[in-house]
Design a protein that fits this description.
The chain is of the alpha+beta class and 223 residues long. It has 6 helices and 6 strands, in the order ααααβαββββαβ. It has helices spanning 3-9, 24-40, 49-56, 87-103, 120-128, 179-186; strands spanning 110-116, 133-139, 142-152, 157-161, 176-177, 197-203.
Amino acid sequence: MCESDLSQTHQWQYDGSQTTPNDCVVTCLAMVIHQARRLQGLSGASPAHGELARAIDSPPLRTWRWYRLPPTFPHLGKLDVRGATPPDGAVAAFNRYATLLQRGGERFEWQATRARAFSFKPLLDQLENGCPTILFGVENRTPHAVVPVGYDPRHQQWLILDPGYAMTPQNEGRFRWSSARLAAWWGERHLAFRRYTMVVIRSTDATSTTLPVRSSVQKQGVQ
């Protein structure tokens, strides 16, 4: 995935288009939907996170009782009255959105599942196999979600699409994480989800030959 692809995929949760701007997970969902559409070769525009948030908040998508954790849940940060999306909520929202697209006649053949990994290898395997992925971690006691898109073995850095920051030259360093930083962030404990939690988007098309999310993903030097 080249730099232009990264900028096209990345979305900033605070751009004013979302009614729940602090909900980083919805922004990550919009990014992995864009990745999935690109990998499948589908034409047409992917939803912006504001559009996706409105769809998720409205019938028929908003049919799952625990789509969002309540704002009274401990250590969720500065939230509005609707709280924040947990990993199970992300899985439900993605799969319901995929079903809605399919019922509308679109061949969007992807399914989200929740998983855990206790090393970087499973994460690299998902990226190598062309599976868009959302990671859940904690920073300053506040839960957050990001979308990893690859690993740069030359600089020993992970390429991370963080919805909390606009993609500008000034923020370039915020999209490249060391393994130590990722391990600390991903492995932090929180009541909202278990450590090393991720949501993986897999193709359900048996004939699919999806390409890696980033062609330069390599395992060397990463465990």
